[in-house]
Amino acid sequence: MTAPKAVPGLHLVATPIGNLGDITLRALETLAGVDIIACEDTRITRRLTERYLISGLLKPYHEHNAALARPKILEKLAQGASIALVSDAGTPLISDPGFKLVREVCAAGHAVIALPGPSSVLSALAVAALPTDRFFFEGFLPSKETARRARLTELARIDATLVMFESGNRVQDTLADLASIMGTRDAAICREMTKIHEEIRRAPVSELALAAATLETRGEFVLVIGPPPADAQIMTGDALDDLLRSQLQRDSVKDAVAHAVELSGRPRREIYARALELAKQAKGDHGED
Questions:
Q1: Ramachandran angles phi, psi of 159, nearest 5°
Q2: Could you give the CA distance from residue 274 to residue 272 in angstroms, rounded to a whole number?
Q3: In sequence order, which ranges of the chain are alpha helices (DSSP H)?
């Protein structure tokens, strides 16, 4: 493919998240017209360039070589080069390398041009059948269970639709944690979007977690969780005590409090004080047996 030479600067080019037919005409023209295509994995980007007969120079730029590659890119830009930055799939900088490069390119006074296109975040929001007027993109959750549950408890307080990425080997554990913390909320699991085996499941989080055993875990996942209900009620004192006693039987005071804060709508300080009282009572009762 032949194209006019791209203007000097760093071009942020969105590439397909699965179906190679989703590339934009402007993206193709830019990829064919730049001096260098900086990409996470040259093998993946080469599939795209070969499909559209683009013979650009591919150079790796990823989290492991970024510190060495950035100065070289900045040097080329200073010489008037045009460089495209692409991720393996989707829009660059969205849970992908590139932020530090863009920051340094801007600081050096070079142009940064965005070419919009495919995004798994926006695609998942569009098909999830959940509110889209306000959403919060989390990216990947922590891999360790304790850290993941703590982060989900924090996210549960956000009055917006939540969007997060997850890997196939952790998606079932994450769904179980989501069910424990946000079980009543509507949600969607979006797997392998735009690809041959695309699968979308929509149901309350608790139902999705129960059916997780039948979920195909190969592929890329985007999880979309609806916002908390507008009519959420503040839990009564007796109900809060029951909840805390139940949680304290299997969790630490810290985790029990975090869980209760999300579900009860009551102040954290109040819940923490009550949790300490109940934990002390339980310890005393156990000591008297």
A1: -85, 70
A2: 5
A3: 25-33, 42-51, 66-78, 99-107, 120-127, 145-155, 171-182, 205-210, 237-248, 253-264, 268-288
Question: Which has the closest alpha carbon to 44: 92, 87, 93?
Answer: 87
Both tokens of 69, joined, read 């590659």
Q: Which amino acid is at 198?
A: E
- Mean pLDDT, residues 248-277: 83
Predicted local confidence at residue 285, as pLDDT = 65
The confidence score (pLDDT) of residue 79 equals: 97
What is the Cα gyration radius of the chain? 24
Q: Report the half-sphere exposure of 261 (CA within 13 A, side-chain side).
A: 21
Quote the crossing angle between the two packed helices 145-155 and 171-182, to the nearest 10°. 40
Q: Quick one: which of 146, 116, 139 has its CA closest to 26?
A: 116
pLDDT surpassing 70 at residue 286: no
Q: Retrieve residue 29's tokens.
A: 């023209």
Q: Tens digit of pLDDT for each residue in 187-241?
A: 999 999 999 999 999 999 999 999 998 999 998 999 999 998 775 555 667 777 8
Q: State the pLDDT at residue 289.
A: 43
Q: Bridge-partner residues for 58, per DSSP?
A: 37
